[in-house]
Design goal:
Layout: H1 2-28, E1 32-34, H2 43-55, E2 59-61, H3 72-84, H4 101-109
Length: 127
């Protein structure tokens, strides 16, 4: 039945994401994994990550479920942090459906260090 297929697919994806996430954290020497956005609402992924993180001596944190339904809350939080640091978006910033975090940060930095000092952000091309 289609429900079994969907459940198997979800289970496989949750396992794959968990394995890759934990391995990335271990490779980078991180001790905490933070999961955000809509995917953080997936109960199976939460369960897999909690078990795998604990088994590998890692901490995993998730936002409240009420904050996982839309990335708007995450974007607003990031924007608030940037504003509190005195950053403004340049008027040249256009609309894009996908923008790497390093591209966003380069708009604010002008050669300065990454504003989240003391943290290590794992993202494609950043480290």
């Amino acid at each position: 039945p289609i429900a079994d297929l969907a459940a198997s697919f979800q289970h496989t994806i949750a396992r794959s994401l968990t394995r890759r996430t934990v391995q990335c954290a271990l490779n980078l020497g991180l001790d905490t994994i933070a999961i955000g956005g809509g995917v953080a609402a997936n109960s199976e992924l939460r369960s897999h990550l909690k078990v795998a993180a604990e088994a590998n001596g890692l901490t995993v944190i998730f936002p409240r479920l009420s904050l996982c339904t839309d990335n708007a809350a995450m974007i607003a939080c990031a924007a608030s942090e940037h504003l509190s640091l005195g950053h403004q978006s340049p008027m040249t910033l256009g609309t894009q459906s996908r923008l790497e975090i390093v591209d966003v940060m380069s708009l604010y930095m002008d050669g300065r260090s990454f504003p989240l000092q003391g943290s290590r952000v794992a993202t494609k091309g950043l480290l």
